[in-house]
Amino acid sequence: MIKLNNISKAFDDLTILKDFNLSIDEDKIVCFLGASGCGKTTLLNIISGTLEYDSGSIEGIDNNVSYIFQDTRLLPWATIENNIKFVLKSNKNINVDQLTKKYIDIVKLGKFSDYYPKQLSGGMKQRVSIARAFAYRSEILLMDEPFQGLDYDLKIELINAFLELWEEDNRTVIFVTHDLDEALLLSDKIYILDGRPVEIKKEIEINIPKRERIKQKDKLNDYRKILTTIK
Ligand SMILES: Nc1ncnc2c1ncn2[C@@H]1O[C@H](COP(=O)(O)OP(=O)(O)OP(=O)(O)O)[C@@H](O)[C@H]1O
User: What stretches of the chain adopt beta strand conformation (E)?
Assistant: First the structure.
């Protein structure tokens, strides 16, 4: 379990977190949903270890965290194949070529493996970034608006690719979004964040198997209603 104990964080006199507490179960997908500027990315950066906090403690996280950023941060000088290989190389006793192909195929970029990032669309780059995050062995995967700016069909395609990777290699996923669809389709648990300092206004568990959610529109809409009526 990941535990945040009394975490506080201020940027000068702007207090984003004040004695913030949270426990996250292992191997689940959880989501921070909230208005722009409430502190979701700050929280994710603190969990990832890329941002220092002022006080409190965090348990259950080693240094081995994958992070999918809003901008994909692929290596511009490397092909798609080599972007994936780069993170696989640190694993011993694996067939790097075979695994690279597997990850590229899951995100349906087989025909583009020798392309460079600048030759890809935004959605394709996001797919590489997701494949790379799974290729990198870690217990925890953090994602900041991973499907942002994609049209609905592409988003669904990417969510399916993501779930295929996750089902094969369960790990704890914490992601940030202000897109209700993403939250509803992926999460075991949604935390609604709001306020300054930020608070968990509500937490909701989604009890529909993830792969069935797209088809179960009515059930999903019940959750949607609950989430949109929270004040
Ligand atoms: N390095 C920083 N220095 C000063 N202020 C910052 C810094 N990083 C974030 N902030 C401020 O902290 C607040 C929370 O920012 P954060 O990026 O965590 O919000 P968010 O909920 O992720 O927003 P969005 O959904 O728009 O990405 C904002 O008011 C932002 O301006």
Answer: 2-11, 14-24, 29-34, 55-59, 65-68, 140-144, 172-177, 189-194, 199-205
